[in-house]
Amino acid sequence: MTDQQRLGDEAEAVAELVFAALADASRRALLAALAAAGPSTATDLATRLPITRQAIAKHLALLADAGLVTAEPGERRRVRYRLRSAPMQVAQQFLAALARDWDGPLAALKDHLENEGEQR
């Protein structure tokens, strides 16, 4: 059983949502903006990014569905979005497990290539 299989079905589902959300450059830019400035409204984010407020709202909804942000009611019915780290940690665990699965074969390949080079 590989490390990936040990993560479990729930973690696999979370990782799938996170990676799908991160596949879009606009959503990555939104996450970076939230990381830099902290909780923000869609309007705040629209002033900082070259994305329309409507597109930002759509992307934030997808990020919320993936669990990467939470929507918190603010003053005057303005919703503030805040980063959540837990789903990103699941994705990091998935990548770490994937890297561990490759460590052995890559080390063997390195040894093979080094030995072949010494024999020449």
Describe the structure.
There is one protein chain. With about 120 residues, the chain is mainly α. It has one domain (about 5-120): Winged helix-like DNA-binding domain superfamily/Winged helix DNA-binding domain (Arc Repressor Mutant, subunit A). The chain contains 6 helices and 2 strands, in the order H-H-H-H-H-E-E-H. It has helices at about 5, 10-20, 25-35, 40-50, 55-65, 85-120; strands at about 70-75, 80-85. The protein has a two-stranded antiparallel sheet. The model has no long low-confidence stretch (mean pLDDT about 90).
Quick recap of the structure?
By secondary structure, this protein is mostly helical.
CATH domain topology = Arc Repressor Mutant, subunit A
Strand order of the largest sheet: 1-2
The computed structural class is mainly alpha
Mean pLDDT rating: 88
If classified by CATH, what would the architecture be?
Orthogonal Bundle
Work out the helix count.
6
> How far is the N terminus from the C terminus?
38 Å
- Domain module count: 1
Compute the number of strand runs: 2
Give Rg in angstroms: 20 Å
What form results from the Cα inertia axes? elongated
Portion in helices: over 70%
**Strand percent estimate:** 5-15%
Order of secondary-structure elements: HHHHHEEH
The protein's oligomeric status is single chain
